[in-house]
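1st attempt posting a full record on here, be nice pls
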Amino acid sequence: MEEAKSQSLEEDFEGQATHTGPKGVINDWRKFKLESEDSDSIPPSKKEILRQMSSPQSRDDKDSKERISRKMSIQEYELIHQDKEDENCLRKYRRQCMQDMHQKLSFGPRYGFVYELESGEQFLETIEKEQKITTIVVHIYEDGIKGCDALNSSLMCLAAEYPIVKFCKIKACNTGAGDRFSSDVLPTLLIYKGGELISNFISVTDQFAEEFFAGDVESFLNEYGLLPEKEVHAPEQTNMDEEDME
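the predicted structure (as tokens):
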């Protein structure tokens, strides 16, 4: 009698308790899915599939074992994965929030192009009034001097790749100290930070081959630790494709 009573209590407990094994967790999820969905919005065929998949079964029931061990049908697969599109939208939303937060928390202003300085006063104002954390690269050049045009083009590319670095250019004749910047020392690069000159390179193109590009200038500046870590953003479509493959 006690054994029968114990068995009855055990059966009642199994019918109400939360499953702990992997299959039990899946069954609990399926049951929750059925209960949480609006009954009017679920087609009868799908509702029956969920009901069968979530119903607790006796261990001695051969039909139950066959149902558990059988391969998942197409309908079951589509039902379980019908929220995949919503999950992708949620991931995209979270990624956008992270990008917005990163931009808000980024220290210092952002530039992205080469500034043309028109006078010595503007030159000094740029050096003295810019934020102390900002690296300023100034190219002193003159028209017709070999290497100046190529260096200006290279700096335009680097300005786009390093938007937190302020790249500037100024003609030697506009600096107010033209006698110090003769054609023999041009093009010249001056690098400032916190109002202080931290590096200067006269006739800088002598460090490059006769034909050079932005990558050559970038490598040269990196050798002296004058550029920050480059910002790299993976394409949006690539991120989505990787998530779809998970």
